[in-house]
């Protein structure tokens, strides 16, 4: 049985990363862009840092929570697909993908917990 993640990697192998001045092969389509592994990791870290409730003061609306959950799910799914694709990933990159997967899994429950505290207090 064919692994869909591997098929995605093979499709993207002939495409170039859409980040400025990057000549690396794209490994995934994420946030409406073809990205190489390094740019995927960078974008995930940037967005996760921006949306992590531990690092901001505003509480966001219910729509924001939906968008946050959607982003976290896509981020997790893509990190997992890349990890399982069989693509040549070194230990540092594998560690970063795991970190992204874990961080994305923490963000939504943290946001929900902060909302619950705000409603009680």
Question: Tags for this entry?
Answer:
121 residues, mainly alpha, two-stranded antiparallel ribbon, 64% helix, elongated
Structural commentary:
- The structure is a single chain.
- The protein is mainly alpha-helical and 121 residues long.
- The protein has a domain at 37-120.
- The protein contains 4 helices and 2 strands.
- It has helices spanning 4-13, 37-51, 62-84, 91-120; strands at 28-30, 33-35.
- A two-stranded antiparallel sheet has the order 1-2.
- Helix 2 (37-51) runs antiparallel to helix 3 (62-84), helix 2 packs parallel to helix 4 and helix 3 (62-84) runs antiparallel to helix 4 (91-120).
- The protein is elongated and about 50 Å long.
- The N and C termini lie far apart (52 Å).
């Amino acid at each position: 049985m064919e692994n869909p993640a591997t098929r995605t990697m093979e499709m993207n192998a002939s495409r170039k990363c859409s980040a400025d001045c990057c000549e690396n092969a794209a490994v995934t389509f994420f946030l409406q862009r073809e990205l190489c592994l390094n740019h995927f990791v960078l974008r995930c870290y940037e967005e996760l840092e921006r949306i992590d409730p531990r690092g901001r003061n505003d509480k966001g609306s219910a729509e924001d929570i939906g968008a946050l959950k959607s982003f976290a799910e896509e981020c997790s799914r893509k990190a997992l697909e890349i990890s399982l694709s069989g693509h040549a990933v070194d230990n540092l990159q594998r560690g970063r993908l795991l970190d992204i997967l874990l961080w994305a899994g923490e963000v939504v429950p943290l946001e929900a917990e902060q909302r619950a505290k705000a409603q009680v207090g």
